[in-house]
Design brief:
about 130 residues, transmembrane helix, ion transport, 5 helices, mainly alpha, Fluoride-specific ion channel FluC
């Protein structure tokens, strides 16, 4: 039954990615893939937060199906590493070396920071007393 939850989560993640990427392109423009960067950063934060919050030392205990639904399904369908890679390649092919490099640096550095912040935020919640 886990596969069904993962598929449902992936569909929800994909729709969310489509919406946020489109929104960002409308607001900022489509030359630089801001939507992809935002999706990857927020996806990294969400997976870091959820993994720490529901892990063995976490504040919330959830079953394996729920973890797979969120982490593999939603986050897997939401984050866009393949889109990021193709957009970076296209920028490089168009000799947009500065934009291609900026996309790599921003995506990698900010996503690592986001996953760390997500895990740290959940760590704070895990330490709270009470319910």
């Amino acid at each position: 039954m886990t596969w069904l939850w993962v598929m449902l989560g992936s569909a929800l993640g994909g729709v969310s990615r489509y919406w946020l990427s489109g929104f960002a392109a409308t607001v900022v423009g489509g030359t630089f893939p801001v939507g992809t960067v935002l999706v990857n950063i927020t996806g990294c934060f969400i997976i870091g937060f959820f993994a720490a919050l529901t892990g063995p030392d976490g504040r919330i205990l959830v079953g394996n199906d729920t973890r797979q639904f969120v982490m593999t399904g939603i986050c897997g369908g939401y984050t866009t590493f393949s889109s990021f890679s193709l957009q970076t390649l296209n920028l490089a092919r168009d000799s947009q070396w500065l934009l291609a490099g900026a996309n790599v640096v921003l995506s990698v550095v900010l996503c690592l920071v986001a996953v760390w912040l997500g895990a740290a935020a959940a760590g704070v919640l895990n330490q709270l007393k009470g319910a």
